């Protein structure tokens, strides 16, 4: 049994998978806020995992908490961006500086859409939109504030605009301030993804992350919504016979 962990800036996502399972097939999975990490750890301890693969972009303090809460005896690998892994070549100018979650998401997207020029958009605290070629090159991508950050920046930095929570897609031209803000931030997110698809001439677009259910309906390009694409990528990386190539 393998434990997969994606520690992001807001939540920690996790899954438990059998060694021979197809990427995305899990016995159980969940997501908790950082403060609730102990609740997830109780499930990890009961599962009997022998191996853990962890992607962490939330800093050393959270990494230390995760390490402390992992079941004793588990073989732990801290996933990192390298020059190549699971058949994906890292085209970042400094490969090690690519966020490990973005590298894992790209591996996961290739597992779901192999042999295609694709865009993978992960919509969380930040939104990342990355391009991968059909022959397995991570080209690079975009980073922009996530949906909630865009909305909160308007509320924090203007005198009369309210805080707007993510919600269903309104009319393109809102006839009230709430809908106008929501249409604006959703259009900005969707526009970045659509521009990436057009610029890369992608034949596949994978959208994931906590804000994906809000952003995906605004898209005017064909796409697939995939839950927990980073965890899918970690699972694919763990199962691949094409190992890690250091830079």
Overview of the molecule:
Its main location: cytoplasm. Its EC number is 2.7.1.33. Catalyzes the phosphorylation of pantothenate (Pan), the first step in CoA biosynthesis. Pathway: Cofactor biosynthesis; coenzyme A biosynthesis; CoA from (R)-pantothenate: step 1/5. It is found in: Cytoplasm. The chain is an alpha/beta fold and 247 residues long. The protein has 2 domains: 2-78, Nucleotidyltransferase, domain 5 (2-Layer Sandwich); 115-229, Nucleotidyltransferase, domain 5. It has 7 helices and 12 strands. The strands form 2 sheets. A 7-stranded mixed sheet has the order 6-7-10-9-8-11-12, sandwiched between helices. Strands 3-2-1-4-5 form a 5-stranded mixed sheet, with helices on both faces. A hairpin with a 2-residue loop joins strand 6 and strand 7 (88-90). The protein is globular, with a radius of gyration of 18 Å. It starts with a strand and ends in an 8-residue tail after the last helix.
């Amino acid at each position: 049994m393998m434990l997969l962990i994606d520690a992001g800036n807001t939540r920690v996502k996790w899954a438990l998978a059998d060694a021979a399972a197809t990427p995305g097939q899990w016995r159980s999975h969940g997501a908790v806020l950082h403060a609730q990490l102990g609740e997830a750890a109780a499930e990890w301890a009961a599962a009997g995992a022998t191996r853990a693969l962890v992607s962490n972009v939330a800093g050393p303090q959270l990494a230390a908490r995760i390490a402390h809460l992992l079941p004793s005896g588990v073989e732990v690998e801290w996933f990192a961006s390298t020059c190549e892994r699971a058949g994906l070549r890292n085209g970042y100018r400094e490969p090690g500086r690519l966020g490990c979650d973005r590298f894992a998401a790209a591996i996961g997207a290739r597992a779901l859409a192999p042999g295609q020029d694709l865009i993978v958009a992960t919509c969380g605290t930040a939104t990342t939109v990355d391009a991968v070629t059909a022959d397995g090159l991570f080209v690079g991508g975009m980073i922009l504030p996530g949906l909630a950050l865009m909305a909160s920046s308007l509320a924090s930095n203007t005198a009369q605009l309210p805080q707007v929570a993510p919600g269903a897609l309104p009319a393109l031209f809102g006839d009230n301030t709430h809908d106008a803000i929501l249409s604006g931030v959703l259009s900005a997110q969707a526009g970045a993804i659509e521009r990436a698809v057009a610029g890369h001439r992608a034949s596949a677009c994978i959208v994931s992350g906590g804000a994906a259910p809000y952003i995906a309906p605004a898209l005017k390009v064909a796409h697939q919504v995939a839950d927990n694409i980073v965890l899918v990528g970690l699972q694919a990386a763990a199962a691949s016979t094409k190992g890690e190539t250091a830079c």
